[in-house]
Amino acid sequence: MTQYVYMFSEGNRDQKDLLGGKGANLAEMVNMGLPVPPGFTISTDACREYLKTGEVPAQVRVQVTRCLRGVEDQIGRRVGSKDEPLLLSVRSGAKFSMPGMMETVLNVGLNDQTVQALTRFSGDERFAWDSYRRLIQMFGKTVLDIDSDLFSDALDARKELVGAQSDIDLGVLDLQRIVEEYKQIVERESGAPFPQDPREQLDQAIEAVFKSWNTERARIYRRRERIPDDLGTAVNVQAMVFGNLGEGSGTGVCFTRDPASGHSGVYGDYLPNAQGEDVVAGIRNTLALADLERLDPTSYRQLRQAMRRLETHYRDLCDIEFTIERGHLWMLQTRVGKRTAAAAFRVATQLVDEQLITMDEALERVTGDQLNQLLFPQFDKDAERDLLAVGMGASPGAAVGEVVFDNATAIARTEAGADVILVRRETSPEDLPGMVVAAGVLTARGGKTSHAAVVARGMGMCAVVGADELAVDVPKQEIRVGERVINAGDVIAIDGKTGEVFLGDVSVVDSPVMTYIAEGMDAAMEQVGQDEEVRELVEAVDRLLTHADNRRRLRVRTNADTGEDAQRARARGAEGIGLCRTEHQFLGERRVFIERVILAKDDADRQAAFDELLPLQRADFVELLTVMDGLPTTIRLIDPPLHEFLPNITDLSVKVALAEERGESGPEVDRDREVLEAVRATHEQNPMLGLRGVRLGLKFPGLFALQIRAIAEAVVELRGKGLDPQPEIMVPLVGSVRELELVREEAEAILAEVGKDAGVTLDLPIGCMIELPRAAMTAHRIVRSADFFSFGTNDLTQTTWGFSRDDVETEFFTDYYNNGVLTISPFETLDQFGVGSLVDAGVQRGRSVKPELKTGVCGEHGGDPESIHFFHDHALDYVSCSPFRVPVARLEAGRAAVMEGKSGPGASA
Ligand code: PEP
Ligand code: MG
Question: What CATH code is assigned to 376-509?
Fold first, then answer.
């Protein structure tokens, strides 16, 4: 019989696949001897079965009985007991944390009888009836799918009737009435009475949690966080402990270090006399954790000890949920905490300094995406700013945008090109679609651990929470701050680090980490001044990046076409150019030369155009090779389809037609006519699969020759000046070894000739791009003529999938994400199974003939973290990416080296 249900004591933290993150960590805490309310976990296997068949496997019920009895024995109370009832919480818990995205049902086990018993047992009648009310409400919404407004409306109506300000002001009689009303709502809406049998409640709640794996917000969240849709969630069933049994009770969330800055200390929120959901929902503003020391010194001391033990055990920042029930501390959850990018870097180096982890492990704890976030600009402290309010900086960044109050407007305005700030009183998981598109989120209520804060931190988006000077009136679509009124559509700026909220736009400056990357440590330190926290951050980035550089095997080059780009990339640590796209040098004013090449009537005419181009090309290469002195510089011969250099066929047809209609004549009209004829003659239905790359070079003799000569002459000129230019000549879109042979013969002749004239030897490497499946599969033949390979994974993705790289992402990829064909665009993250296999085949086959063959990647994937790990694991020599991505690639290449073999599955099934 498959085991689907596990007592906490049967698991451990390494079983996240089976027990989910929450279940695995609860098991671990039990093993550590920490005070965890007893319980059990129903595995993700059971959920996957449920998702497949629509039914909870029959064995689950039987196994739940075994574990439920185990819990009853441990705690000495029974579910449904009329004396001392045991109540249960039923919570989701997937492998990867999805805060607030799935469902929870608390107080399972209450009914008309046990509510009386709970009154006696707790000595608090109000508490018992309030718990019962909460159960029916959560059960109704989550299990029975009843519109939750029906319950909150009934509650509000009752409050109004008795003149209660908040829930707390409702008395026992009021709550009993509400329970009656709630039961009526359930019966009316679901067609059956609220189930009185505790076991029935439990079984239905378990199924509802499984079902909530596929709520819309859960799916959106998974797509964004790249969590596979087929994992399923586990369900944790646990004895309830109560934080709402009066002032000696409470509930809280804490971190072993500050998840925003990384500072070690006492961070967290505490709510006396409350249930756990109240903290995360951000409904009531919380106390700081430090206040607990005053309220309950014993529990505080125990909690601090548990925090230290957990951090030592997990050797990382942990976040913890706890409840104090009448002076008894209970640990409800722990996990390695989500953190901001800055905290990730700082915590990693702090843990190294405390000798809890090694530098290699520290490198595993930070990501290229996090480094990228640290490069974002920040608000200029010296700019003029109109401060509206100060809340809590919950997730750093500087966001400026129009105020919007709901998901629909957030989505509509961003689609129209606007940046928006989603403003809410507090956020709930329903706000996720708006948060995904917003530049930032601002709430008036809630603490650093509120839903808004946790989700924003996870997504790396800017968030300010708990700005309680703001009166957010969603129905009126306005925010009032004292006398001032801010309407939907007004621009505000929020600082996710300081918590400041400004009216209007605020200008931004480079982040100090960016200054460090681009200009070095001294410049960064000058910018940082006395700010210790930022200083520590820049130093942490420096240490980890340096360690990555020492550990990585992959070299990092850049894709740059101009001296300026090359300069920028070199400053960021690029070790060469992996791709100079020379076609960019033929646009603008120089386009006419290509026109002349195409229109040429004979070879002499065409040669004349080349002769004019030669000095210009030489100057381009002199500039580039000067900046890249001593470093390999791959110059790709001209690649794109001809039409990119010619006027648009429709525009030109109209122009010629108009001229003819008006009876105009003269050299300009003649020329237009001539060009139009050429445009028509060269027009292609599928230009990306047409006359481009090496085909162009073979069709127009002299075109590649011009470029090769310009490179050769640039080398001679620079060597004459004592420099050390290292160009590599690269041929695009090769599919057959013969194509490359033809170009190589031509190139070698030119190099020999220029070399002879100058009295030097010019044996520059000549290689090719591997960007067609045929090239990858015949790499062992092509390599005979190639000194190196560079994988053009953009075209290789296009031609492997048969996806037009210019069209498909907007055409139908959204459908493909929704139905699970893709989890992310294969143009962004390498499709490892398909395109990756071709890259691997190309490398293997090439090296089967030339074991030392140098191989690199110059498609967009060269700057993508997940893809970089693949390239490391498959023994490529370098990646090449845009100048801005160079630091990210350096870091990820280092991480790939210390995490060898642990890369994920890539973009598609
Ligand atoms: C590629 O195809 O991956 C490549 C780098 O070339 P381009 O993007 O210029 O086609
Ligand atoms: Mg290409």
Answer: 3.50.30.10
For residue 590, the model assigns a pLDDT of: 80
**Residue of 891, 841, 842, 839 lying closest to 870 (CA atoms):** 839
Q: In testing the pocket of ligand 1, which one of 557, 559, 639 has its CB within 8 Å of the most ligand atoms?
A: 639
Residue 188: its pLDDT value, please?
A: 96
Name the packing angle between helices 114-122 and 125-142 (round to 10°).
140
In sequence order, what are the beta bridge partners of 41?
A: 6, 236
Residue 608 CA to ligand 2 center (angstroms) comes to 29
Question: CATH second-level architecture of 48-57+67-239?
Answer: Up-down Bundle (1.20)
Examine the residue annotation and report whether 874 is marked as an active-site residue of this protein: no
Instruction: Name the segment(s) of the chain with CATH classification 1.20.80.30.
Output: 48-57+67-239
Q: Is 634 in the pocket of ligand 1 (CB under 6 A)?
A: no
Q: Where are the domain boundaries for CATH 3.30.470.20 in the chain?
A: 250-339
Terminal-to-terminal C-alpha distance of the chain: 30
Q: What is the CATH T-level fold of the domain 250-339, as seen in this structure? A: D-amino Acid Aminotransferase; Chain A, domain 1 (3.30.470)
Q: Ligand 1 in contact with 856 (CB < 6 A)?
A: no
What is the pTM for the complete model shown? Answer: 0.82
The residues, ordered by sequence, that sit 6+ positions from 300 with a Cβ below 8 Å of its Cβ are 292, 293
858 is catalytic: yes
Q: Is 191 left (phi over 0), alpha (psi -120 to 50) or beta?
A: left
Q: H helices within 315-446, ranges in order?
A: 341-353, 359-364, 368-374, 407-415, 432-437
Which is catalytic among the residues 451, 861, 869, 872? 451
Tokens at residue 509, please? Answer: 């400056």
List the beta bridge partners of residue 473: 478
pLDDT by residue (tens digit) across 773-811? Answer: 999 999 999 999 999 999 999 999 999 999 988 777 767
Mutation test residue for ligand 1: of 583, 769, 805, the one with most atoms within 8 Å of CB? 769
According to CATH, where is 3.50.30.10 located in the chain? 376-509
Mean predicted lDDT score pLDDT of the chain: 91
Q: Enumerate residue ranges in the chain where pLDDT < 70.
A: 277-284, 429, 447-451, 454, 458-460, 810, 901-909
Q: Which ligand is nearest to the CA of 830?
A: 1
Q: Which residue has the tokens 């794996």?
A: 213
**Alpha carbons 601 and 587: distance in angstroms, whole number:** 22
* Rounded distance from Cα 736 to ligand 2 centre (Å): 16
Give the other-Cβ count within 10 Å of 662's Cβ: 9
